[in-house]
């Protein structure tokens, strides 16, 4: 079995982008619980995100959501983030909270509303130009609730047209990343419900269009690592939205529901060449992001736990003895190959990672160090008044 | 095959209770769309519900949700409803929108919070006494999001204790009805996730405690008509919350996603003696209710469509030639028995029902009659200002 | 609403191919029940299939499965079929019942076994040349049962290579049709698990390679009509394997589990131009086939019921008032559009279809006519001795 | 965190029963692959099972399946097993492979067939008397494939009657254990589909009737540990059939698909008092059994891997710091409680267990020791000719 020392260098530079919205309040359709200290501004969300990076060294950038994170001066925001030790990352568009989009956005049958949704993406690209963001991530809430309500074919054609117009504006060093989702908020059909649809749509656009895989957006039982493998093989895996689910799009902490699935996913990323620095030919690596909702748990430690889970599972995936695995696979040794795989999963990497962190000037136990820092008490005292940020 | 004339009398007196909250705004965690004319008060919700009954003759009562439908004077509300032609029905408790209930209500580890939740149910029983409602319906949002977060065994024991205290307050002519739900808003465990749990809990209480079956609260693939059969057999099916789903608890219009499933469910209700007036021995019939969210469609016609769907499917279920079915079943004639069953499902009962309605002074086409009535324009004009009612 | 007379001409020429194996015994891993009269030869299977066509006029061709339907002289078999009134259709390959294929066929890591699987497909193409079949249908059982057992990426690359070699042999008027399946017989990963994979693989081959959609091969909750729409839009829907499911790949009679889903699927076929005679530009229409297992019901009437279900649902789908639907959709009239759709579904087309059949010299009630024919008693008496055909 | 030394004594005496049928060939409806050395007799199956116990010390008994394991002299079989170092355990009835049971066994509408099925269980009890087995396990394949095919209510009543007759024959020290299963081999309804049905049926029988929970027999997404908790709370969890699944009833090696789920299940067994020796009041502990199919992997090492997985996960479950967990739960510390739970799951217990085994005269690595033993080569050479045992 590969040992930790051999894989330690590969852990250098691992970066997991945090979503700004994870630091605001979130909840279900039944209730959103507020908590003391929740940010009232984009800046406060960035300050909180910076805490995660400070204690883990794993989260150097923060994704923005427009219009939730609209500010007047992005250069200033960029500077503010830099002072805090993080950068601004992916820009997420939002076409699901305007009354006009009740029956669709990029797929809307009304050309005026559809153009409005396209224009919103142009604005997002403007933001990207100002922030230096690489990726425009599009998640569409478009869909319908009742059979017959919508012409699903016409919508798909309009989607293709809308995406083409947006893609035309994408800069040479920028990417359009199209997320798919099985269902919700639409309950009969969703316009980008599966990887096949996202793949077909982005393939029609060009090299700078990629698929975003959110680990919570699949039908029950779906083999997600297979999709990871396939998209890497097809050269179209742009990014991950990591989270966990037991049922639907539960948006729980990544690795908390099925840690072994996370292991298998990251193993296929490694196997398929999607992990590590940019390839020599300039192609972009796969971007790791979180997309989670901390409905009942603390937000900053919740994000910390998440990036640590990804790091721990990456270490385990790297520990797989690939030569032994290949040999057992070639020999048709089912139990042998499975055991090589499980040996890495069952290896306890936590002590090694604590030492690894200390060597790099990070706390051995980031969760404890953060808890001891007093930051939470500080923001609870300071952030009084104002409106806590949330999804709306 | 049984003909319509033979079953027409059995359609008399069918009653489907409407949820007051269906007339307020609802939506997903992403967005709640408001609509012109939405009620700003309990009275306006009741007025809208009365429209459904006026045009269909199927919906003589309205369920209340406490605290959403809290008023100072229930006698007055009862009178108001009577003037509109409807009565007040089931009282639904709500323990999911108070900050205290973040980690549970009837199951909470903190005795003070648990007592608060019990007390809330006592208040609901007071409301029932004032309104003359028969059923106290309990749907619990209690659960947890992460493995380890909660002691699921301790919670079950506390639930039993809480329910026993509430049951003690239930009057001789009242019932406690316990709803189960697979998941949401909790995403790891739910304290009453399946019919087995609800059945075990209400069985421990006594004869006046029953199970509520919400058609959208099951795991994918669950054979719901089997549960209907079983609960009727065990004498514990208290009521239905009707709605439709494609994925999770989508709360779509009953009969819109899988009409054949609705047919099979109602057939088992009929087969098991759960349809029709109270039995001579005084046992209660099964209460039919709707529990739906009209996120994107019009609310009043949405409720109208729903009760009509239930009526149409009841007619089809009653049309099954039970003798021919039994004969084919006894003979092991798989295709023959299936065809007897399908013959009833495929029968178009709409024209017969239109005539049936006209004979009773109801419009042949309730949807058209309502649309022509001008009521919607009227409420849009009248209901300006104020706060539209919704789930919060 | 469109009336039956208007759509009657569109029902002309509808053809649903029958699988030869549906007339042999089938079952589950627990038990295969034999029945009197089951065919002992390919010829007897064809004779039985011809009965279905004789009484319904809907099933003019029979699909073969190699090696189950291996004969020495295909010209003779073709002639035999013609005498019985049917033709030989799609050729299905089989790479799941040879010990060599325990760990894969077209994906096998051992080049010798992989070549054997490729060679088998060459033989199938030889059969097609002899029978005049248009389609080579490939369903792969390839997959693995345990994480780590197989290198899923390597297998995908080998699959692409194997398919390319087979595709090279396909004649100008022939097609390669690649079926996908969610799971079974492999229980961890399947090499062609979803439409996206099948689409990506056939797109790499060329214009004569298409996707086969088996209605039972999806994850729970999958919106199948969306996939139908998408594949038609992408020009890659080659054929259907029709059947029904409640749980997994149950292979029940098409239309028996969720008739409304079948309606929605056929509506999208019509909407997307996949129904009717070959297009003027010579492109092939979508082939309709059955792929079912009559484990407990009679086989010949089971197939009859199936093709009648498809015909009845096609009639309903054609009855949708497309203009009214489009108008309601454009107006954002959710309930109105849904009702237009449901009006067609709820229309009872059975009497019209009985008349339609009689006009064409077919029995009004094919099920009854077949039952009265005495054919079943005849084959039970005649087919004594020999080995009943089944999957093995 | 609890350390291994503290929990080591609790691992003493852990016993996991092996199914005799796991050593015969098994497969899917598509293909059963044979393997050299497969047993041709009950004795050879027991000899193979004894190997598992010899190397792991975890599997002291073997479950029988009647009629697969019918012999003339059970006293002699018992003696043979004892010589090999194992005992005979649970007796499993089989009512799914006789033509008479095509439409049901204990639920059959034909009283003669139903009595035949009851009589079969009487014979099984006779076998139990001869073998000294404690448990009669009943898994029913009864169900139907098409809506309308069967009267599901009548079947449930007949099931109750049949079970009562069987229960009457059960001895004072014997138990009747009723297994439930979501679906398969029936594809529309199953007569004992869920824990609620099994619980209701066994509750009506008496104290010696219990529920058997097979970990692969649930709907997608079901929280199995919740059911474990509930059945223990209700005093009705009789036994486990352990295995793993990704999709349906895949019958894979326990712990291979979702190790974290196995951890959660065993934790609830421990939490609910279901683990360990019989209680002082004489109530029986929960029986652990395997029920798996080694379709593609080696059988003896497959069983070995399985019992080791159960042991390793039991050790992890015992390592949970229950005091720290309770404290965090009581404090509403979601992340803290979750981390206490995960800390135990992520602990690598393999080296400690190897040492534990060596202290007890067992090989540190049972898999390696067995592989080195030459037993497989021996049986491959010796077991030539005869008919390999399988499910049929």
From TrEMBL, chains A, B, C, D:
<dbReference type="GO" id="GO:0019324">
    <property type="term" value="P:L-lyxose metabolic process"/>
</dbReference>
<dbReference type="GO" id="GO:0008740">
    <property type="term" value="F:L-rhamnose isomerase activity"/>
</dbReference>
<dbReference type="InterPro" id="IPR013457">
    <property type="entry name" value="Rhamnose_iso-rel"/>
</dbReference>
<keyword id="KW-0464">Manganese</keyword>
<protein>
    <submittedName>
        <fullName>L-rhamnose isomerase</fullName>
        <ecNumber>5.3.1.14</ecNumber>
    </submittedName>
</protein>
<keyword id="KW-0413">Isomerase</keyword>
<dbReference type="InterPro" id="IPR050337">
    <property type="entry name" value="L-rhamnose_isomerase"/>
</dbReference>
<dbReference type="GO" id="GO:0019301">
    <property type="term" value="P:rhamnose catabolic process"/>
</dbReference>
<keyword id="KW-0479">Metal-binding</keyword>
<dbReference type="GO" id="GO:0046872">
    <property type="term" value="F:metal ion binding"/>
</dbReference>
<dbReference type="InterPro" id="IPR036237">
    <property type="entry name" value="Xyl_isomerase-like_sf"/>
</dbReference>
């Amino acid at each position: 079995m590969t040992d930790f020392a051999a894989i330690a260098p590969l852990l250098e530079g691992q970066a997991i982008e945090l979503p700004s919205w994870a630091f605001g309040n979130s909840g279900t359709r039944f209730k959103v619980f507020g908590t003391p200290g929740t940010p009232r501004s984009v800046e406060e969300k960035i300050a909180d995100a910076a805490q995660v990076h400070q204690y883990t060294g794993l989260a150097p950038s923060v994704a923005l959501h427009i219009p939730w994170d609209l500010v007047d001066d992005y250069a200033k925001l960029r500077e503010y983030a830099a002072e805090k030790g993080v950068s601004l990352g992916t820009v997420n568009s939002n076409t699901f909270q305007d009354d006009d989009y009740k029956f669709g956005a990029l797929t809307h049958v009304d050309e005026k509303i559809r153009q409005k949704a396209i224009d919103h993406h142009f604005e997002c690209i403007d933001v990207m130009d100002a922030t230096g963001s690489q990726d425009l991530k599009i998640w569409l809430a478009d869909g319908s609730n009742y059979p017959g309500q919508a012409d699903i074919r016409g919508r798909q054609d309009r989607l293709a047209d809308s995406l083409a117009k947006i893609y035309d504006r994408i800069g040479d060093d920028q990417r359009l990343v199209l997320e798919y989702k099985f269902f919700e908020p639409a309950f009969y059909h969703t316009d980008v419900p599966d990887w096949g649809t996202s793949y077909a749509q982005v393939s029609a656009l060009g090299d700078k269009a990629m698929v975003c895989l959110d680990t919570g957006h699949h039908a029950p039982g779906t083999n997600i690592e297979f999709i990871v493998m396939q998209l890497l093989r097809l050269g179209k895996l742009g990014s991950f939205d990591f989270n966990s689910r037991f049922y639907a799009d539960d948006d729980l902490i990544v690795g908390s529901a099925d840690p072994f699935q996370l292991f298998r996913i990251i193993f296929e990323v490694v196997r398929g060449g999607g992990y590590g620095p940019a390839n020599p030919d300039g192609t972009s690596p796969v971007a790791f992001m979180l997309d989670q909702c901390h409905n009942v748990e603390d937000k900053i430690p919740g994000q910390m736990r998440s990036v640590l889970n990804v790091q721990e599972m990456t270490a385990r995936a790297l520990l797989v003895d690939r030569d032994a695995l290949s040999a057992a696979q070639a020999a048709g040794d089912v139990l042998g190959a499975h055991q090589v795989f499980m040996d890495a999963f069952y290896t306890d990497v936590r002590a090694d990672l604590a030492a690894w962190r200390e060597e790099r000037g990070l706390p051995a136990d980031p969760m404890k160090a953060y808890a001891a820092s007093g930051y939470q008490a500080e923001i609870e005292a300071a952030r009084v008044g104002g409106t806590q940020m949330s999804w709306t």
